Amino acid sequence: KMYFRMKIAMRIHAICFILGIILSVTSLKAEEERLWQLHAVDIQAPYAPAPMANGCIGILPQKEPFAVEHVMLNHVFDAASPHVVSRVMRGINPFCLSMKIDNKKVDTSNISGWQQTIDMRRAVHRTGFHALEKADVSYELCALRNLPYAGLIRVTIQACKDMLLEVRSEMGIPDDYSQSSIRYREMEADGNRMYMLESDATSRFGYRRVASTSSFLFNGEQIKPMYDEATRELFFSIQLKKGETFCFSLVGSVCSSRDFFDPYNEAERQVIYAVHEGEEALMQAHYRLWDELWQGDIRIEGDDDAQRIVRFALFNLYSSCRGGSRLSIPPMGLSLQGYNGHIFWDTELWMYPPMLLLNQDIARSMLDYRFDRLPAARKKALAYGYRGAMFPWESDDSGEEATPTHALTGPFEHHITADIGIACWNYYCVTRDVRWLQREGYPLLKEIADFWTSRVTRNQDGSYSIHNVTGADEYANGVTDNAFTNGAASLALKYACQAAEICGEKVPEIWWEIGENIRVLQFENGVTREHSTYKGEMIKQADANLLAYPLGLITDEYRQRQDLEYYAERIDQKDGPAMSYSVYCVQYARMGEADKAYEMFRRCYEPNLRKPFGVISETPTSNNPYFMTGAGGLLQAVLNGFCGLQITDEGIVQLPSALPSHWKRVTVTGVGSDKKTYVRER
Predict the structure, then answer these.
(1) I need a labelling partner for 506 at 20 to 30 A (CA). Which of 239, 297, 332, 372 fits?
(2) Cα(563)–Cα(556) distance, rounded to whole angstroms?
(3) Percent of the chain with pLDDT over 70
């Protein structure tokens, strides 16, 4: 008996041990899952919406039941008004749902228990609430990564009482359009009966045609939607019994004449494809592609709040572009029409570096965008009396200058041409793709070098100056020898020389000479002088400090500290954009000053955070979602600062750096072409 009791006790102990392991693993998985989610639980609280995008369209959900504010189209432009520059367009919105229970519309006045969750891992936006004390309603919205011109809303209703459910879908046509039509289409394709709501419209000034199609999916249930001629809505109704659960989806597509010769039929074709694929297959493909994106991830141990904020920044950049699209990312991504959806230096200096480290396909697309518009840049250089290629400060689809004419940044903020050259060289340093360098990289760098040789002026002492520019600090216009402009130009020339040698091309001697002798001015005490007439006035954002990072032209720590201490408090605290303190964070972290680095890290996002999800606005006083440029700066603070990653001529290296005192570890996965993992521990 004693033997059997011992045996039973040992088995019980083993079972308890195994159960303990299972519970521990389950608990760890639950904790890990929690760090992928952002929550909102108070519908009355301030609310900054967060876009759900896939690189081609961006959908902006709101807090009201089923509300979608608008759909943004990537790089689809029309004029903002007569004789005014281009503005990115909102698409026709096929995601307009409404619900009635027992003939009463569900809205904010009759719901309770409202909550929303953004699941970053799966890229879905979930909403749930109790409606009219008769049903529990939940739905999730996503911009499908696998169908980049389409999105899906999946809805689940659990009846708490016997009830009549009615659901309606309509097309939302914004005032970006002058002519539009809405129609109902019923058709059969390979034995499947489909019921579709369709719309097409011409942009207000006739530049583009846009079409949209939507359809309900019922997961095999035999429900026939109806069309309401009066309201031009597609709708269905169904009687539900208490305790019954009913599910359906709405799939919608938005196509434009920028991307398709026949956007009307393509929009219809995309929905037909989605109907035949089915909801589950669509979502599984969507999840799979996001799993691939998340091979490049940042994990922070010891600071859950920072983990969510940093991951949300990365999520938004991944959402805003896609490999193979040959498109780039505007400052507000695909959230709204801010800055007209144009492409600035924000791309190359702020958003591109994290993408180059973590996803070379997206980084390549951002460079492809510039290469495709090289002919337009050549024409701009010619128009202003220069050689080579002169890239516009604000670029739209044409690649011509799209800056409003009242802004001097358009004619004078020339450092963007150097920024593009630096991004080009860094792509080669990470990928070591010599064929790409020969075919695209060097031709682009050559045009940029030729521009700078014609842009500089030789001084009597043999040095070179650049006159009449706007630097990164846009409060200073028409200045001479702007620190960042001169530094970036010198690097672009140096990289053009290196690329020429690799490609077996003759290096013009003037490139080396100018690159080595462009002036970078200093005050008498050794502080870098922002420009030749700078006297300590307020600046919009970091300029001279960029010479230490990211340019790497000032490596002496004493000089870096001098510059940091001098300029940090001269930044406009009210209207300055979010990025400046991120470069300060990088520099302090690399100098081993963990506390100061963490202070700057917090300053680069905390004043700009907006509830409930942690959307980052451009400035401490603005409320625009989501400022992708700020996301790029925040990510560089962690990747290049706390983790110490640096792109060099020999590839990616990890420099010494310091972590905040309460951070245990930073792990960055999927870095570079070989998807390497880098770790920094305290």
Answers:
(1) 372
(2) 11
(3) 96
